[in-house]
Each structure stands twice: as structure tokens, then as C-alpha cells.
Design a protein that fits this description.
Elements lengths: L14 E2 L8 E5 L8 E5 L6 E2 L9 E3 L2 E2 L23 H5 E5 L2 H9 L9 E3 L9 H5 L2 H10 L4 E5 L8 H8 L4 E6 L5 H7 L6 H13 L5 E7 L7 H14 L3 E6 L6 H4 L1
Parallel strand pairs: 3-7, 5-8, 8-9, 9-10, 10-11, 11-12
Antiparallel strand pairs: 1-2, 2-3, 4-5, 6-7
Helix pairs in contact: 2-4, 4-5
Length: 267
């Protein structure tokens, strides 16, 4: 896929009025390459987010974007858009907040004497390799900053754009532990178009798994969510797991669909 036409300098004139509910808003812009999508560019005050509790294998996350053009109908993060006075339906899919200074802020935070180099996870809320990343290219700087500071990192994505940064991730893995996870919940392409209309194709993500493995990195797969009555039969799961094994996945985690308020109402 060609990404050059989606860079920031390819933007056409015309900006939208700012939204007062979005903290740090610099401007709101649209481009022909992302028809129907508005990017709200903000200056973030922090990059690292502390994860309360100890139930997860990481204590810190980074989310360079809020909202997600993958438009997964079941996404648990949809209600978070209400904090911006946007809705969890089409606004979540089409009104994307971009932390344009996230790399600079992250470098400052990692340089603090108090930073202990704990693992940082990307892709826990919205996808860092959604289509917006083709325009803003925030992930290369984030990866370099984390690896350069001796901070282990993991990335979970449905976005085949991760392939662009494979060389960088391989280089980072020589300095710190790097975990790659691909989300691939179903093998039926027609069903994917209905419930994950903005997500790359099943074949594209299987090819991504192969590319990650060929690059020498481990690659786990999240089969999540398993959809009751749609993707949960033994035959369907056997077929999908067989495809993942053939692609070289080094591990699989399955999670059954759990719709939270907001996702449930809009599904």
C-alpha cells in the first residue's frame, strides 16, 4: 500500500473549528486520502499511562491515538470517546485524536531518574498501527525511544502497517525484549467486512504473521473476540487455528466476546 499520499505534508487546505472538549487541541484537519475522517491534532502532556492493579503483565501503556478507524463494532474502548464529548459510535471511528508530540514527551519521561524501565505495552486501548499511523508516523520514534532507554515493549495490532517498522523492531529486539501480537479473530472475510470494516484483510494479517516470523521475532495471536453463533463452532476455530499455525504463530490466546455498555448499545 502506498503511504506517501497520506503524509502530513500531503494535506489539502482547510481546517475545521477546534473542539473545546479536547484538551491540548491545536487544529482539526481532513484530507482526501482519509475521506470521512477528521484528525484532531493535540499536544499531549504525558505519554506513559500507569495501569492500576497487577492483573496484567505490564504496568504502563502508550496510546498515540484516541478513536480508531478499524471501526470494530465490538470495541471495548468506544465509551472512552464520551470523555471528549464525542459519541462512541461513528465519532469513535471517524474523529481521531492524534498526540502529535507524543515522541518528544515520551523521551522526557523516559529520561527521568524515577523511570525504572518497566515494560510498556502499545495497542491496549486503540490500535497504534491504525490507518492514521500511515499519515503521522509516530511509532518509529516511540520504538526508538523505548529501546534506547532500555525499556521492554510489546505491540498488539490488527494493522498490517506494522510491517513498515519490522526492521526497526528487529533492531530494538537486540537491545530490549520486544513482543509482537497480532489480533485475528475470524477467518471469514465477508463477516470481517461486517464487524471489522476498517481492519486489513484476513490474508493480509496472515501474511503479516509470516513476515514477523521471517524477521526472526516471535508472534503471538489474539483470537479475540470469539463471536457466539458466528465464529465459535469447533470447525470454525479448528480452521482458523490451523491457518495461524501454518503462518507460524508462536502462541494463541482466545477470548470470548464481552460487550461493555456503549459497544453493546451500538452493535
Amino acid at each position: 500500500m502506498r503511504w506517501a499520499g497520506q503524509q502530513v505534508d500531503a494535506e489539502t487546505p482547510g481546517t475545521l473549528p477546534g473542539l473545546g472538549s479536547i484538551a491540548g487541541l491545536v487544529r482539526s484537519v481532513t484530507t482526501p486520502e482519509f475521506r470521512g475522517i477528521t484528525f484532531h491534532e493535540v499536544l499531549a502532556r504525558s505519554a506513559l499511562n500507569s495501569v492500576p492493579g497487577t492483573s496484567l503483565p505490564f504496568n504502563w501503556t502508550i496510546n498515540p491515538y484516541r478513536g480508531c478507524t478499524h471501526a470494530c463494532r465490538y470495541c471495548f474502548a468506544r465509551p472512552s470517546h464520551r470523555y471528549l464529548e464525542l459519541d462512541q459510535g461513528e465519532d469513535f471511528d471517524q474523529q481521531i485524536v492524534v498526540k502529535t508530540n507524543v515522541v518528544e514527551v515520551l523521551r522526557r519521561e523516559l529520561a527521568r531518574p524515577s523511570w525504572a524501565g518497566e515494560q510498556v505495552a502499545l495497542g491496549t486501548n486503540t490500535d497504534p498501527y491504525q490507518r492514521a499511523e500511515g499519515r503521522y508516523r509516530l511509532m518509529p520514534g516511540i520504538i526508538e525511544a523505548l529501546a534506547g532507554s532500555g525499556t521492554p515493549l510489546s505491540v498488539l495490532t490488527k494493522g498490517t502497517l506494522l510491517r513498515r517498522d519490522l526492521e526497526l523492531l528487529v533492531a530494538a529486539s537486540s537491545e530490549v525484549p520486544v513482543g509482537i501480537g497480532i489480533s485475528l479473530a475470524l477467518a471469514d472475510e465477508e463477516l470481517r467486512k461486517l464487524v471489522e470494516p476498517g481492519v486489513p484483510s484476513v490474508r493480509g494479517r496472515l501474511d503479516l504473521i509470516r513476515a514477523v516470523r521471517e524477521a526472526g521475532l516471535t508472534c503471538g495471536v489474539m483470537v479475540a473476540p470469539v463471536l457466539p453463533w458466528l465464529t465459535d463452532s469447533a470447525e470454525q476455530l479448528d480452521f482458523l487455528l490451523g491457518q495461524l499455525a501454518e503462518a507460524g504463530a508462536t502462541g494463541v490466546t482466545t477470548l470470548v466476546l464481552h460487550l461493555r455498555p456503549g459497544s453493546r448499545n451500538g452493535s
